[in-house]
């Protein structure tokens, strides 16, 4: 499978470097470059890539707003966003995940790790380090300026699905969930898929955030 990518960064040299990296690797195709968030959204609509590699700080429409526009567009449900930035700022990471991004990497990430991240996200998984995610959520989820999700959707899931969601929020993979609950991996995958449908989450990254923001899972110490 060829992974089709749009590159969004206001620095032409950065985009050129990413393009060379991807085009010299089998299985990747760069189908567009954007210098700001608005252009990234336009290219996502035009090309329907598998992934948009999105910088955060760009002139005009920034990467966070562009991510929101892509993830709320029903015509772009198959388009994932990987946020890639020089800014290791927790709130950027948290807002990127809340906006629908499927992962977050710093620009000083090794090339092999970027390629791995793109493959992980294209496969439908989320690129999250569980310890980092829990730390972020513990810090930001209690802030009054952060909207808590409607718990009505959470009430629609079954007790077993709540158990699975808590394990997803703990950073467990489908295989690990299956082992923990003594069920098949296929059954675990089905539970995760049904939960995502019921609470309108795009991927596991949003499942983690929603699990904490709904109060179903609480950060340690609370």
Automatic annotation (TrEMBL):
PROSITE patterns in UniProt: HTH_LUXR_2, RESPONSE_REGULATORY
A Gene Ontology molecular function term of the record: DNA binding
Entry-annotated residues carrying 4-aspartylphosphate: 55
CDD domains per UniProt: LuxR_C_like, REC_NarL-like
Gene3D superfamilies, alphabetized: 3.40.50.2300
Keywords: DNA-binding, Phosphoprotein, Transcription, Transcription regulation
Record-level GO BP terms: phosphorelay signal transduction system; regulation of DNA-templated transcription
A family per Pfam: GerE
Limits of the Response regulatory domain: 4-122
Domain HTH luxR-type residues, every copy: 150-215
Classification via InterPro entries: CheY-like_superfamily, NreC/VraR/RcsB-like_REC, Sig_transdc_resp-reg_C-effctor, Sig_transdc_resp-reg_receiver, Tscrpt_reg_LuxR_C, WalR-like
SMART domains registered for this protein in UniProt: HTH_LUXR (SM00421), REC (SM00448)
Superkingdom assignment: Bacteria
Name by which UniProt lists this protein: DNA-binding response regulator
Originating organism: Amycolatopsis albispora
